[in-house]
Amino acid sequence: MTSEFAVEMRDVVKKFITPEGNEMAAVDHVTMQIKNGEFFSMLGSSGCGKTTSLRMVAGFEWPTEGEVYIEGKAMGHTPPFQRKVNTVFQNYALFQHLTVYQNLAFGLEMEGAKEDEIKKRVGRALEMVQLTGMDRRKPKQLSGGQQQRVALARALVKTPDVLLLDEPLGALDLKLRKEMQLELKALQQQLGITFIYVTHDQEEALTMSDRIAVMSKGKIQQLGTPVEIYERPNNKFVADFIGESNFLEGKIKSISQNEASVFVPSINAEVVGLPISKGLVKGEEVIVSIRPEKIHIAEKDSINQNMFRATVTNTVYIGVDTKVFVDVHGAKLKVWEQNRISRLDPKSFYSVGQEVWLMLLPENTIVLRKD
Amino acid sequence: MNPFRRSPFVLTAAVLVYIFLYAPIIGLVLYSFNASRANVTFEGFIPKYSDRIVMEGSLVKSSPCGPFHWYCELAKNNDVAEAAGNTLTIAFTATIISTIIGTMAALALQRYNFKIKPFSQLSLYIPIVIPEIVMGIGILTLFSQLFGWVNETFNLVGNARLSLGMATVTASHIAFMVPFVALVVQARLQGFDKSYEEAAMDLGANEWITFRRVTFPIILPGIMSGALLAFTLSLDDFVITFFTNGPGSTTLPIYVYGLLRRIITPQVNALSTVWILVVFTAVLLLQILQNRESKDHS
């Protein structure tokens, strides 16, 4: 391999003409570098440009502007059959008129592989996805999970440099999906090839990826490791899209090199000692973002900073957590408290109207620019 | 249970419709075994087998073929054999050519966007809705004008002169069959998922291999349905063939029409019966194909 990056997109724009005749950028100046052997996910809701980006890597679409590089080579208008990448399609796109064996052999025949070599490689690929003995079946005779594995094997049997996966687990039920997530990740580590994975399921992306590009409206909102994306979202969209967050609007009251104090009018209080990113200035309108599971509920005031008096308005028991909804001087906040102890005793719940103290730890609280 | 299914009214209506549809056909088949040569009334079957044909007035008393006397007569009739040969030659040739053209038209309309696309789509429907006689006269006018001009310009004489015949009938059949094929194939393509082609290309197949090994096998049932429909239409076409045929290109419908103007012998009924069987088989085949196709989709 000649290049450090398996796939690179440089300032790629893809415009489509809508049925009404308007021009619309499905992908809007996207730049990303995907390293060799990386499990890279593009995450976003439908229409965010993730699938279009993947299709440009596969060669099904060509960029309107910018360039896609595979192994350091500019792809230009190279057709899909001349790119060393393979795709697992959302609907699997298995050839219904061919058997499982013929589906897998198809790509190898295109390479001009000899019959006995095809046999060997197909056998190995089927073994890898645990479908040995299914080679004579037609795709229709397989379950959804098995079809998914055939689609995976059909792409992997070509030993591509990069495997592209377009929401491959979307059609499976939850339990099977979770199994396949771990299996895919293990397979990727074992084979050492680059996976580019498109999904709208944040949990899926967080579970499997080395790095994630969160996309919206054709642009990358944030690119980073799962931990970075979850713990340090760099804008309100990402904080809201990944997991859940409480947002409090405020104004920077004082600022030092790496800390700020923000006055939040809705709770009529100051949140102090917050870590900040570069470029914020005193007096700037900001959003203080904190995850519900990172707020602590204390029964009475201790001497800590950032403690606020709140009233419980509702509690919802959901098994693993209890969701506690509170009111701080009119600002509504949500707090998730893990059920570490049995909640069988009704007294272990917070009661509606109960007064509690909320504690915000500065290191778990993020100051985001208002935009 | 649907209350209508038990209703005597629905049952009666259904029975009446079936009688109306099938009584003439059953009568036609029955009369093909008629002992009477005049074939105006049914005079009973020809019961006896004998070495030679025994006639009593206009009644056939016995025949080497027994009740199948008229079928044997039919088989001996060279004109019928020639007409049947012509019909099948035209039907097969026109089906093959119109299926290729129709399929290509359907594929082009499905996957490319071009300026005259709405016009092309409309122009496919017109031959279907236009009265056949208009199309027949139109084609005849075209051929006679064109042939007249060519014959005169190049001073063609004798056999070299262009005239109506097998070629003109075949060409006119192709003209009216293409839209039917194209529409049937188009319907099949409507449900065609582009990702199959993308998958093939992704696996290293170029455009031609993708078409040959993936697209074509998937749409083949649709193409076959279109071809069979076109074939049956060609077999029994009368109006257009009437205008475009010439010496030596008499087809079965034209031949039967000619017979009817002279005398209706049970031979005509025998011929019609054989014909019904052929068309019925073709339609049955079509039905089976379409059933399999819909099963593939579910």
Please characterize this protein's 3D structure.
The complex is a heterodimer of chains A (371) and B (298). Chain A is an alpha+beta fold and 371 residues long. Chain A has 2 domains: 5-239, 3-Layer(aba) Sandwich (Rossmann fold); 244-369, RNA polymerase II/Efflux pump adaptor protein, barrel-sandwich hybrid domain (OB fold (Dihydrolipoamide Acetyltransferase, E2P), Beta Barrel). Chain A is 23% helix and 37% strand. Chain A has helices at 50-58, 100-111, 115-128, 144-156, 174-191, 202-208, 226-231, 236-241, and strands at residues 5-17, 23-35, 39-43, 65-70, 73-74, 85-88, 162-166, 194-199, 211-216, 219-224, 246-255, 259-264, 269-275, 285-290, 295-298, 307-317, 321-328, 331-338, 355-360, 365-369. Chain A is globular and about 75 Å long. Chain A starts with a strand and ends with a strand. The mean pLDDT of chain A is 91. Chain B has 298 residues and is mostly helical. Chain B has 2 domains: 15-71, no CATH class; 77-262, MetI-like fold (Orthogonal Bundle), CATH 1.10.3720.10. Chain B contains 11 helices and 3 strands. Chain B has helices at 8-31, 69-76, 78-111, 117-129, 132-153, 166-190, 194-202, 207-235, 239-244, 252-262, 266-297, and strands at residues 48-49, 54-56, 59-63. Chain B is globular, with a radius of gyration of 24 Å. Chain B starts with 7 loop residues before the first helix and ends with a helix. The chains are: A alpha+beta (371), B mainly alpha (298). At the A-B interface, strand 6 and helix 2 of A face helix 7 and helix 8 of B.
